[in-house]
Every structure is written in structure tokens, then in C-alpha cells.
Amino acid sequence: MSLTHDAAPSPPQSTGRRFRAYTTKHLDELTARAGLDAAERLAVRAVATVLPFRVNSYVVDELIDWDAAPDDPIYRLVFPQADMLPSTDVARIADLLRREAPRKDLNQAANEVRAKLNPHPAGQMELNVPSSEEEDPLEGMQHKYHETVLFFPKQGQTCHAYCTYCFRWAQFVGEPDLKFASGEIDHLVAYLHRHPEVTSVLFTGGDPMIMGEGVLSRYIEPLLQVETLESIRIGTKSLAYWPQRFTTDPDADETLRLFERVAEAGKNLAFMAHFSHPNEMLPDLVQQAVSRIRATGSVIRTQAPLIRTINDDPATWESMWRTHVRHGMVPYYMFVERDTGPQDYFAVPLAQAYEIFREAYAGVSGLARTVRGPSMSATPGKVCIDGVAEVAGEKVFVCHFIQARDPELVGKPFFARYDEKAAWLTDLEPALGATRFPHEQGRPENTHADLVGAAHP
């Protein structure tokens, strides 16, 4: 379907608003608006010295209910909380801020805290793909699964706003050693020609939709000539945080025409939209943006992690999935909060996560039951908790790999001992007398090198 088709939605009238970002220099003013006192605001600034903070005028003006702040879920989604980090770390950095310590002292303290937060979960720095059998890895590309390559465009390594729970927070803190990105689309194309088993490329970041149409086209257009490629995916939060990208921004129409060209080339453009709460769908502007994207022939799939204090109840997920189906989007994943950053603050135990998923899943029609979860994007692959059962007198989690770096593991059930406190795969132990999980069999040392080998057959 073309944007010029009579049935395609026309662009809305301009809101007259330009994108405006708020960063840490605005944090004290904004948290005061939420009713925080001076000591609370200082603690929040201390957390924002370690973890990234960025929000924009659309989120501030249209999504946050300031009368409900700081308990409003969208506020908690984008604003640091004083207790997200250990109190000793917060107190140390707050003291440096209070004394107006030199920037180098603040950076040193912040880096020491970051180092304890597992900045690169699931071995993501070790998965850069090799340019040949002999050469060094290609920066900013990951052959994560047999048929899937992730690409991190260097111009897309920021977002319209940052989620407080983001597992890629290390990309945004200004430390070059923690970044990974590439501007070499020719290297990706050459790699795809050498690896015809790869049928899907996922653009991720940051947020690729932070890029203008001209830059985005330079990355996507060359992929349309790769015959073995079936789908191009774009992982993005832009629909929730800046829908103007597809409605009133100067290059909104050109961006949507680029999406049309992907469909015209016989490939699927999968728009992987990150929605964390049903309130993100309330503004008319986001609903208009969804209609315009779908009119290009693109498929919008929705996903988010389960996050304590933001969306940790079944009614929230049921409402969100039903709203997405109503607007023609496809519910895709409920993720488990990854083992990085302030995981201890946001994580929901797997047993509770399963019950939330099951109750929400039971409340929607079959059209919304395309969603999978709760799913852990762990080092060996995406592990889904299918249920809790008693087998041979032992209470267990029933699990399977939705996706795996070793394709032989996909779809095969396995069991883990039930643990009501477990929040991640590494918290679990094999059940029913087993000493290893299936992904550990035959690997005395389950190293990242083993996993990279499995990812590059």
C-alpha cells in the first residue's frame, strides 16, 4: 500500500513543536516538579551520574501525569529513582556533587559503580562478527543466531528518551570503551553474501529511528539487493517517545516511502516497537503514526520487559496487548529484565513473571496470543518459562528455547528447579537429577568463545 493511495492516512496538521531534549542539567528542575525535596533531588542526580538520563518535550508534556508523579508509571519509566543503586554508592556520589568535586573525580566514582553493573550482558561485546577467518572482528555487528545478524549503526546510538531499565544503558554514558557501533554497511552486505543462512537483519542501538531518512536510507537501500535476505527489522521506541518521527517531522513522508521500498523489493519490514505501558498509546498522535507505518506494508510487532513498579501486573499487559491488536499491531514478546544495570531494582522473580504473563494471556483473544514470554534474552538464547509443574515429585520450571545460538536447542523442553526468588537463568539449577542444562552439555567451560563458535557455523 502506498502513501499516495486514496485509502492511506494523510499526515496530521503540524503540532508546531520541535524536538527538545532534557538532560541531566534539567533534572533538578523536573524532579522538583514531581514534588521531590532537595535531598531526594540530590540522590536522583547521583544516580543520573552513573546511569544515563534523557527525556523530551513530548514525553514530559503528553505522557507523564505530573499530578501522580513520582508514582506515575511513565515518570518512573524515564526518571532515575534514588534507590535504583546501592545506598552506599548513591551517598558517595551525592557527597561529591554536594562538594562540587572535580569532574574527573565524579567520572572515576561513576565508572567504578558502572563496572559492578554488568554493562554488557549476554556476551554482546564478544559477538562482533569476523570479517574473515583471519581478520579482526567487524565492529558493530553481531551474528547472534544462525539466521539473524544485529547491526548497530553509529548514527543511531542514542534515543529520543532513555528508559530507566534499558539493558543497553552502557551505550549512552559517554564512555568510548563501552560503545559498539558501525558505519560500514558495505561490510555487512559482504558478510551477508558470504553467509546466505542469514535471512534477517535487525537494526538496533540506541534507536535507529533517531537517524534522519537520508542516513537511514544509506543503511537500508543496499540490503534490498541481497537476495537471500527476507526481512529487515528496526528495533525502536520512537512510536512511544516521539511519534512525530512518522507524522510531522520534516522527513516523515520520506521515511515512510523508504519503508514502502522495502516491501516493493519483496522483503518484510518488521517494525519492532517497544511499548512498556498502555498509557503510551493514549495520544492521538501515536495512533496516527501507527496507521501511517502500517500503510507502507510494514508489520509492527510490540515488545517490552516486565518491570517492577511500572508494568508488573496482569491488567496492564492485558490492556496493552488488546490495544495493540485493536490498532493492527502484533504482540510479540514479554521479556524478563536483563541481568545488567539496576536489575535488582526492576526485576520481577520468574515465578511471579510467569503468573503475570499467564493471567494476562488468559484475558486476551487468540489474535493477541502471538506474544511469547516471559522470555530471558540470556547468553545461550531466548529462554521461555512455559509453566510450573510437579514432575516425579519435584516442583520445576518448564522451559524451552524460543531462539538459541545452538539451533539444535530450539523448541526442546527442559526443566529447572523451582525457586521463587530466581530472577534470571543463572539463578536456576537443573532439575530431576540433571547436573547441567542442555545448553551446557559437553561444555566443561561454557565460555563466550563457545557461543561465538555456535553462532558462526
Which structural class should the secondary elements be placed in?
A: alpha/beta
- Secondary-structure element string: EHHEHHHHEEEHEHEHHEHEHEHHEEEEH
Low-confidence stretches: 1-16, 130-135, 443-457
- Specify the number of helices: 15
Short account of what is shown:
Helices cover about 30% and strands about 20% of the residues. By secondary structure, the protein is of the alpha/beta class.
Write the layout of secondary structure elements.
Blueprint: E1 21-22, H1 27-33, H2 38-50, E2 55-56, H3 57-63, H4 73-78, H5 87-98, H6 103-114, E3 128-130, E4 137-145, E5 148-151, H7 185-194, E6 200-203, H8 213-220, E7 231-236, H9 238-241, H10 252-264, E8 268-274, H11 284-294, E9 299-306, H12 314-326, E10 330-336, H13 343-346, H14 350-362, E11 372-378, E12 381-391, E13 394-404, E14 413-417, H15 448-455
Parallel strand pairs: 5-6, 6-7, 7-8, 8-9, 9-10, 10-11
Antiparallel strand pairs: 1-2, 3-4, 4-5, 11-12, 12-13, 13-14
Helix pairs in contact: 1-2, 2-5, 5-6, 8-10, 12-14
Enzyme class: isomerase
EC number: 5.4.3.-
Biased composition (Basic and acidic residues): 437-448
